[in-house]
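Q: I have 267 residues here and want to know how they pack in 3D. Can you give me a structure?
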Amino acid sequence: MNTKTKKQIFTLLFYFTFLTVCFGQAGPLSNNFQKGKQAADAGKFSEAVTYFTKSLELVPIAETYLARAKAYNAMGDSCNYCKDILEAVKLENNEARELYISKCTRKITLTKIPDSLKRIYPNIQSCEYTNHICDPILTREIEYCNKKGSRFIVSTCYGPDSTYTIISKLPEFVGGDKAMSRFLADNIKYPMSATLEGKQGIVYVSFIVDKTGNVTNVKLLQGIGGEYDDEALRVVQLMPKWIPGTRNNEPVDTMYNTSIYFSIQKY
């Protein structure tokens, strides 16, 4: 038997195996899904969940996740309902996305903005919390609006290995606010072209102080344009280690915002 013949036999065996696996799964997959639908229509929701689970073990399909979610919902199990809806969302199902927003999230609009948020977001004007039902990592999104009407969303997690926005104790520049102001004054280099224009204003910068005190993920929140924004980002990235924020007396990665004021003295 020559090499060419061996390759042809191998190819035929491969396709035969592939077709056997595909069509072998198609039968149980369809059968379990149909049995699940029949059980759900008959009001036997626990039985329906069992069949849908068997179907999902073969192939994870958005339609099956949705069907099992509805069975869980009929049983009053909101956590597993939202979990399955979210799995269908991950499979890019539009119906699931709408259901998740309407059934698995709760929005709270604050009538009074707490001082803790004002310290973190100095230009905040309005705020809305979005809580996710039965989220295993306890995610909360904070949507806030600044003075210019721009809206921002910050994903805030309260689980292990997450970044905290609302925490027990904020991070602190070593030596306090005066030391940070001195650091900024010593290290900021005014762009010559911007200085000639006489432009001034406030640049808002966001960053994360990690659990070891390092400044990371430096981002521009709101700037005044041009080289001023670049310089604000540069000087924040130069910052030495901070005293990290804590939650339950444990250091955590913490999101922090600061403002840098650029002014031109005229003589």
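Q: Anything worth noting?
A: The longest strand covers residues 253-262. DSSP finds nine helices and twelve strands in the chain.
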